[in-house]
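Teaching assistant's notes for section 4

Start the section by putting this record on the projector. Ask students to predict, before seeing the second block, whether Crossover junction endodeoxyribonuclease RuvC will look compact or extended. Collect guesses on the board.
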Amino acid sequence: MRVLGIDPGTGRVGWSIVSKEKGVESLVECGCFETPKNSPLPSRLKLIYDFLTKLIKEHEPDEFAAENLFFSTNAKTAFDVGAARGVILLAAENAGLPIFQYTPLQVKSSLTGYGAADKKQVQFMITRILHLKVTPKPDDAADAVAIALTHLFTQKHPIKIRN
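Reveal the predicted structure now:
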């Protein structure tokens, strides 16, 4: 099972490919896709969509997991990130991937057992769970890994038998 985990944004989109084989989770690859700061929003959205479409074709994930957004202060940021999230979900839908969404509380709880865990605690756990020597950087990539792991921990998947 391969999961594409996404931490949505307009300026930075964290992404990860995490697999689970024979009950063991492993990090395939992760990173952060950045769009030019001064470009218009529609141009940034197209770049994000094109990048994710290429990433999905390259890694052929089985499922897609993204973070649900929660903003309490900046409405403009919320609208822009919501637009980015829309094209991110569209890329997954167009690829025929099952889409799953998790709140920050669900991610923190599934990885640390504590819904108010801080970013460092979550990063410590992903490093520990995946037996990594260093925490994925930047934070957006680490968040995407955490989202993919949350999906693997919370979904019950039947064992696939190939003939």
